[in-house]
Design a protein that fits this description.
The protein is α/β, with parallel strands linked by helices. It has two domains: 218 residues, DHBP synthase; 100 residues, 3-Layer(aba) Sandwich (Rossmann fold). Helices cover 32% and strands 18% of the residues. It has twelve helices and 16 strands. The strands form two sheets. An eleven-stranded mixed beta sheet has the order 1-8-2-3-7-4-6-5-9-10-11, sandwiched between helices. It has a five-stranded parallel beta sheet with strand order 14-13-15-12-16, with helices on both faces. α7 links the parallel β10 and β11. α1 packs across α5. The protein is globular and about 60 Å long. The structure holds threonylcarbamoyladenylate (TXA) and magnesium ion (MG).
Length: 347
């Protein structure tokens, strides 16, 4: 089934932008699905209290229905309407990091539609800081369920063009607000347990959170992914996947160069995703430099664009550098591990 997707081009004229917000909000109130920018990645929004509207998100993305969605709010009072209680730790986190790239898992009162929470007794909520996202939320007056606006399994969209590639003809509209800033999704913290648990590393770092609350732990399931193996067999990941297989290289620059040369000698068409520092040392045609090792926020901002850059018709293997895991590096490496089909570690 194809529907007409309205594309509101990027506009700086505030009068025009007001109209765009009104039109997008009208579609959302009418149970349609509209993509809009947030400070992390583009989101695919629908009325979180309406099961039929939310179903359209799952259909458009091809998302498995057992994976719950994040509810976005424009006002703190909307949180009270969706939960049975707000633990103290959650209040603190909201005070400090909202609006911003932090999602809190809270006990649901089941006002959010059943398919938003995938039947769980908890609901994930965040208040984005992007002005367009906030304006749309306020204009609708609704809590909006909004997963990343990509086809399921693809890298998340950091530009309206990415949303268009994945979802044109499948959703009612796309609000183009230009490239997003943070580049990786929000940090998800479960606040329903005695000690809060980071379920997904993201734009707000563990170090940031630890400044505020004494104890926070990382979901053991995430720790499992950090187990270094020399060369894990091509595991079937379906997250953040570029078109061509991605090999994640852990080692020094010389090790990286050896891997690249070996593949080239085999006649493979290789592309590279690397920091400026490494990219500038490589004498190779297909290199995407994404920020500096010293400024991981730059890398986060450019990562998904880099993962979308290469087409399978041109490239057999993408080699990607590993980044330090402090700060937002934890989110970068989490996504790269999920995107990778091979991990190659230097000994
Ligand atoms: O930055 C973001 O968070 C972006 C933008 C659009 O706001 N949204 C986003 O949504 O990344 P999505 O659906 O792609 O990721 C939602 C994540 C998933 O990992 C999901 O499993 C988790 O949040 N999640 C949602 N509800 C949950 C719940 N009740 N309990 C535990 N995890 C939950
Ligand atoms: Mg996603």
């Amino acid at each position: 089934m194809t529907i007409k997707t309205q594309l509101w081009q990027r506009t700086d004229a505030s009068g025009e932008l007001d109209n765009v917000i009104k039109e997008a909000a009208a579609l959302l109130r009418n149970q349609q699905v509209v993509a809009f920018p947030t400070e992390t990645v583009y989101g695919l929004g629908a009325d979180a209290t309406n099961e039929a509207a939310v179903r359209r998100i799952f259909e458009a993305k091809g998302r498995p229905s057992d994976n719950p969605l994040i509810v976005h709010v424009g006002e703190r009072s909307q949180v009270d309407e969706l939960v049975t209680r707000i633990p103290d730790v959650a209040e603190k986190l909201m005070d400090q990091f909202w609006p911003g790239p932090l999602t809190l898992v809270l006990p649901s009162n089941h006002k959010a539609a059943h398919n938003v929470t995938a039947g769980l007794d908890t609901v994930a909520i965040r208040m984005p800081s992007d002005p367009i996202a906030l304006a749309i939320l306020k204009e609708t007056g609704l809590p909006l369920a909004a997963p990343s606006a990509n086809r399921s399994g693809r890298p998340s969209p950091t530009d309206a063009e990415h949303v268009y590639q994945d979802l044109n003809g499948r959703i009612a509209g796309i609000v183009d607000g230009g490239p997003t800033g943070v580049g990786v999704e929000s940090t998800v913290i479960d606040c329903t347990t005695e000690i809060p648990i980071i379920l997904r590393p993201g734009g707000v770092t563990k170090e940031d959170v630890e400044q505020l609350i004494p104890r926070v732990i990382i979901d053991p399931a995430l720790a499992g992914q950090t187990e270094h193996q020399p060369k894990s067999p091509g595991m079937k990941y379906t997250h953040y996947a570029p078109e061509s297989p991605l090999w994640l290289i852990e080692g020094d620059d010389e090790f990286f160069r050896q891997q690249l040369e070996a593949l080239k000698d085999e006649g493979q068409r290789v592309a590279v995703i690397a920091s400026h520092e490494l990219a500038s040392q490589l004498n190779h045609e297909h290199v995407t430099a994404c920020g500096s090792r010293e400024h991981l926020a730059e890398v986060a901002g450019e990562l998904y664009r880099a993962l979308r850059h290469y087409k399978k018709t041109d490239i057999d293997v993408i080699l990607c550098e590993s980044f330090p895991e402090h700060g937002v590096g934890a989110a970068i490496m989490n996504r790269l591990r999920k995107a990778a089909t091979q991990k190659i570690k230097q000994y």
